[in-house]
Target: Type I restriction and modification enzyme subunit R-like protein
Amino acid sequence: MEMLNLPSFNYKIKHSGANVMIFDALRRKYVLLTPEEWVRQHFVHFLIGTHRYPKSLISIERGTTYNKLQKRTDMCVYDQSGKPFLLVECKAAHVPITQEVVKQVSVYNQVLQARYVVITNGMEHYCWEVDFSTRQFKPQQGIPAFEAEV
Model:
């Protein structure tokens, strides 16, 4: 896997037949190591290690319904009252962050209504604060720290 623009962490890898698996500390199991999973695992550890988000408030691949279609969010962080706070969409490092990706996350967030939306491919990271009353996305300079925002 390639180097990302995120802090490194001590990851556990194992082989299962022809598959390479990485240990997911949140789901407490080994999952298939894909380029997108590589980014997701780095971003999870970035939120926990750098921004002090509690593991217990982070959900991976949460199911949600939009227009009667089942969708999965890559990562959702909840605030202490259980409301979605930060919605994260992860793409593989080689996938450019386009308007289509922003649209995908916006659709998911219409249901979840998280205060912040993050899109990352491990190389570039974009964060917006969502104002639901005006339906505006306000670009942020970085990822909100847990202590400062939640």
Helices lie at 35-49, 99-112, 146-149.
